[in-house]
Amino acid sequence: MKKHSIKKQLKQDLSVASRSDFSTLLEKCNEGEGLTCEVAYATGGTTTMRGSRLRLICITLAILLAVLATVIYLTGREDSSNNKMGGYFVIDINPSVKVGYDKDGFVTELIPLNEDANVLIYNIDIIGKSSNEAVEILFDRCISLGYFSAERDNNAVLASATSENGELDEKMTKHIKELFTSKFSDKKMLGVVITGIQDSKLDEKASEHGIDSQKYALILHYLELGGELDAELYDDIKISELYGKISELEKQLKQDALEKAREEKCSAEKKLFSSIADSVARLIDELERCITRLDTPATPSSPPGKPNGGGKPHDPSEPRPSIPERDRYEGFVSSFDKYIIELDKAKEASDVYSAVDGILEILNKIKADESDSELIALIDKTIAEIDELTDELEIKSSELDNLDTTIEETIEQRLEAFKDASAGKSENVQSWQKDKEKELMASWYEQKREWENERKGDLMPPKS
Q1: pLDDT reported for residue 10
Q2: What is the number of helices (H) and of strands (E) in the chain?
Q3: Nearest alpha carbon to residue 138 among 173, 188, 176
Q4: Phi/psi-derived region of residue 44, left when phi > 0, alpha when psi is between -120 and 50, beta in every other case
Q5: What is the mean pLDDT of residues 91-120?
Q6: Cα separation of 276 and 363, whole Å?
Q7: Which of 87, 120, 379, 417 has the largest count of CB atoms under 10 Å?
Q8: DSSP output for 368-386
Q9: What is the DSSP string of 414-441?
Q10: Interstrand relation of 87-92 and 96-101 (parallel, antiparallel or unpaired)
Q11: What is the pLDDT of residues 200-236, one digit of tens each?
Q12: What pLDDT digit, counting tens, does each position of 35-44 carry?
């Protein structure tokens, strides 16, 4: 019997019992009848038929009232459970975020699920807004930061929604897909929304664990990053929990990468400073050789200005004749002596580039009017070594800068990089979406890795 039928029957029973027994009893009591039976019952005396009937009626009434209260309570709970439930939806673009909402569809929380998501949701307020408003704000933010671009044909979103009891919320998932699809169409931008993964390569393995391909692919990604998860837990772990584990692991990996990048940059600096110091020592030796050559008397068989194998070096006790070329070489030796002091200061301050500029300035001055082939060769070799080591240092510095950029700096850079982004021009967005959706459902994570690599170059200066 349905609950509303039970309630109706109980009301009828109560009504009948009330009129036929309780009302009659009340009337008789008012007339002074039955008082003896009540006194006898209270004193433990002999109970009359009327007293027995009265007790039976009271007990019946108590039972009926208790049953009625229970039915009303259960019915209330049933009615409450039929109300809309809250939950959350996850949108995975590369920035991946979790948006919690209440039973009325208003946003209650916004949680970043990876590093890019921290940039995407930084300083935006969607708490208390409807899911429609939340999607619109997040969509526009993706455009301003370059995560969606009219210049690309790979704008995509993986959307899924889960009710508060942990079940897939197909209605909300469909709603989120419609919202994003509509936004792409309105912007005339090639973009597609998928709500699941159908990868034949993953389906078989996923089915062995009783899960779908999307969840299995996330688990594989987590394991590839170095995470640990027992196979027995594959079915129990939630998608949002997986994203959270991946996010935490990515943070740790980034921290490890930062430490490694700092060490590599420091090593590159030391290598460059050491190379410059060694080069200065070799250059001073070569300049001294040039001075010695000038002080060695030439024989008739030797060209002027070139050393003679049988010649003798200049006697230090005798004054040297003033030769402009010798004065020039000695001037450069003196310049290097002063530079060594500056090199030590630059090393203490980790000011590599001033050290590089200083030695290159001296080398270019030496080479400007130089005719000695051995000295020129040494200068060219030194410049090439410095350039190579400087390039290596710049690469390491750039890697460190990219890893060590604050959220505010990244936002500023992305806003600047995409401030002149062109508007969409595609008229056939919907027809393109159908074909692209099938493709992405079968290769989502492979495509996503390609997009991540592509976006790493968004802030890199254009190659000349």
Answers
A1: 45
A2: 15, 5
A3: 176
A4: left
A5: 90
A6: 12
A7: 120
A8: HT---HHHHHHHHHHHHHH
A9: HHHHTTTPPPP--S-HHHHHHHHHHHHH
A10: antiparallel
A11: 778 888 889 999 887 888 899 899 889 999 999 999 9
A12: 333 333 333 4
Query: What tens digit of pLDDT does each residue of 385-443 get?
Result: 999 999 999 999 988 988 888 889 989 988 988 888 777 787 777 778 888 888 888 88
The pLDDT value recorded for residue 356 is: 96
What pLDDT does residue 12 have?
A: 54
Q: Determine the residue type at 22.
A: F
210-214: list long-range contacts, CB under 8 Å, 24+ apart: 210/234, 210/235, 211/235, 214/158, 214/160, 214/239, 214/444
Q: Which two tokens stand for residue 218?
A: 């996330």
Cα of first residue to Cα of last residue in the chain, in angstroms, is 81
1-11: per-residue pLDDT in tens? 444 454 455 45
How far is 21 from 211, CA to CA, in rounded Å? 63
Nearest-angstrom CA–CA distance, 387 and 250: 35
Neighbouring CB atoms inside 10 A of 291's CB total 21
Instruction: Give the residue-averaged pLDDT of 50-64.
Output: 63
**3-state DSSP assignment of residue 274:** helix
Spatial CB neighbours of 202, under 8 Å, sequence gap ≥ 6:
213, 216, 217, 220
The token pair at 223 is 């394991």
Tell me how far apart the alpha carbons of residues 99 and 129 are, in angstroms, rounded to a whole number.
11
Find all residues with CB under 8 Å of 131, minimum gap 6, and list them. 89, 99, 101, 105, 106, 107, 172, 175, 176, 179
Half-sphere exposure for 294 (CA within 13 Å, toward CB): 17
Residue 218: closest CA among 195, 202, 200, 194:
202
CA dihedral (154, 223, 114, 244) in degrees, to 10, reads 130
**Edge-to-edge order in the sheet of strand 96-101:** 107-112, 96-101, 87-92, 155-163, 191-194
Cα 460 vs. chain centroid, distance in angstroms? Answer: 19
Contacts of 40 (CB under 8 A, 6+ apart): 46, 47, 48, 51
Task: Provide the β-strand partners of residue 193.
Answer: 157
**Position of tokens 């049953």?**
67
